[in-house]
Amino acid sequence: MADRRIVILTDGRTNPVNAKTAACVVRYKPEEVVALLDPTQAGRTAGELLGVGGSLPIVATLAEATNANTLLIGIAPSGGKLPPAWRKILLEAIDRGMNLVSGLHDFLSNDPELSAAATKRGVQIYDVRKNNERDVANRLNLREDCLRIHTIGQDCSVGKMLASVELAIALKKRGYDAKFVATGQTGIMIEGDGCPVDCVVSDFVNGAVEKLVLANQHHDILLVEGQGSLSHPRY
């Protein structure tokens, strides 16, 4: 999605925990973000509420972001459900000619009303978690001298993605050919590619990640974003 001018929707949830997707997009793609949309915090800044983004404004209406062409869902709620009250906002964004970007498990493109409105208006809906992975792992053609580093953690939201991204950035600054390999919705939004592992049928998770490695092993170092935990009571 070239030339994105993004409004990030965080309505009522503009804090570093609930709006972790927003915080990371603001941190790593600041040149693309126009504003955050949260009527409950209008007039404040992203820096005040998220700790990143500096003076990036928080607005009450889409009309205040006149040059925006994309509305991005900025939260990663448990279960990936769309807040019912946000449907009206999404329809307004479509009517204003804005593309939608969502990392929810509720696929916006599968919603008949939203899909019909987008088709009529000629805009796109990007469901970042949507995939059709159907391959198993084969352990063939792996380049052994490509260093693969996998970040892991025993809980959600402990910084697996952040550590991967920061290590990739630091390695590149030191002259290494490093690549961040995204396996979650926020990482994909930042990097522009990857696979949403938590939405892949379990039989095909290994194959999906192996495909990511094969596609990127021309780099010398891969920082592979970890997901969840085998011992997590909910995930």
The total count of helices amounts to 7
Poorly predicted ranges: none
What characteristic shape results from the CA principal axes? globular
Write down the Rg.
Answer: 18 Å
Rounded mean pLDDT is: 95
**What is the count of β-strands?**
9
What topology, given as strand order, has the largest sheet?
A: 3-2-1-4-5-6
Distance between the termini: 31 Å
Please state the structural category: alpha/beta
> Approximately how much beta-strand content do the residues carry?
5-15%
Major beta sheet, specifics? 6 strands, parallel
Fraction of residues in helix: 25-40%
The helix/strand order is: EHEHEEHEHEEHEHHE
Oligomeric assembly? single chain
Can you walk me through this structure?
This protein has about 240 residues and is α/β, with parallel strands linked by helices. The chain has helices at about 20-30, 45-50, 85-95, 110-120, 160-175, 185-190, 205-215; strands at about 5-10, 35, 60, 70-75, 100, 125, 145-150, 180, 220-225. A 6-stranded parallel sheet has the order 3-2-1-4-5-6, sandwiched between helices. The protein starts with 5 loop residues before the first strand and ends in an 11-residue tail after the last strand. The mean pLDDT is about 95.
